[in-house]
Amino acid sequence: MVASRALRPLSGRGRQAEARRNDLAVLEAARDIFTALGANAPISAVAERAGVGMGTLYRRYGSKTELLQGLCVLAMGQALDAADEALRADDPWTGLVGYIKACVELRSGALAALAGQIDTTAEMRSTARRGMERMADIVARAHQDGSLRADVTFLDIAWLIEQFSRRAPGRIDPQEERNARSRLVAIAIDGLRAPAGDALPGRPPSRDRYANRWAASC
Predict the structure, then answer these.
(1) Are residues 138 and 183 in contact, defined by beta-carbon separation less than 8 angstroms?
(2) Which positions ≥6 away from 75 have C-beta within 8 Å?
(3) What CATH number did the domain enclosing 184 receive?
(4) What separation in angstroms does the CA of 204 have from each of 152, 159, 169, 200?
(5) For the segment 14-73, what is each residue's pLDDT rounded down to a tens digit?
(6) What's the number of CA atoms in the CB half-sphere (13 Å) around residue 60?
(7) Which residue, 26, 33, 131, 213, has fewest beta-carbon neighbours within 10 Å?
(8) Residues near 142 by beta carbon (within 8 Å), at least 6 away in sequence
(9) What pLDDT digit, counting tens, does each position of 56-71 carry?
(10) Helix residue ranges per DSSP H, the chain
């Protein structure tokens, strides 16, 4: 399992600050590479996209699997920070909207493309549980004050974030993509507001089915 110290925010200067910058650069590159190509994508492609050497990666992570596991924990940690910020908001709706926008901006659901393709670790599972609990709390607050439509579950929010975490296929100007994504996120958020219009179709997402995507290789 990846050492936890490699995944937590690093403070200070020198090597620690450089390691933190490298981690974040590799995470952003991995979000692009693995969402496009899956877990079989070569690590060399991630290193090239991130602008770091292969030696840098393997000094920090012992294997490709450890790298992917570490990146998943780092991504979930970013989403947890966004959740904590949302729960500190005085207004539950503002907190929910801020959480969704922050997670979409971070593309926190992009590494879901790895589900079932790598072994999950105890740290991955515990971090995921904390993330689900925080998300449930954010949604519960918005339900309680009546700002969020009653038929939306926290797993609906999770799926929404995951869908918006993907890059658009093909060559698209980054600014144009950000603009289009911002507009679509705003449309989606407006659809979450109470009072609801037509009832949502189908059944609410299943928590077991959502989580079990990662269990295939455990």
Answers:
(1) no
(2) 27, 31, 106, 108, 110, 111
(3) 1.10.357.10
(4) 8, 11, 29, 9
(5) 677 777 788 888 878 888 887 777 778 888 888 898 888 888 888 778 888 888 888 889
(6) 26
(7) 213
(8) 92, 93, 95, 96, 148
(9) 888 778 888 888 888 8
(10) 15-37, 43-50, 54-60, 64-88, 92-106, 122-144, 154-164, 174-190, 207-212
Q: Which domain holds residue 203?
A: 4-217
- What pLDDT does 13 receive? 61
Task: Identify which of 131, 144, 130 has the alpha carbon closest to the alpha carbon of residue 91.
Answer: 144
Count of structural domains, the chain? 1
Contact call for residues 44 and 26 (beta carbons, < 8 A): no
Instruction: Please say whether the dihedral angle defined by the alpha carbons of residues 99, 4, 129 and 134, taken in this order, is positive or negative.
Output: negative
pTM of the model: 0.81
DSSP letter (8 states) at residue 47: H
**Residue holding tokens 């009832």?**
199
Segment among 1-5, 103-107, 127-131 with least mean pLDDT: 1-5
DSSP state of 145: T
1 vs 72, higher pLDDT:
72
**For tokens 């492609």, what's the residue?**
45
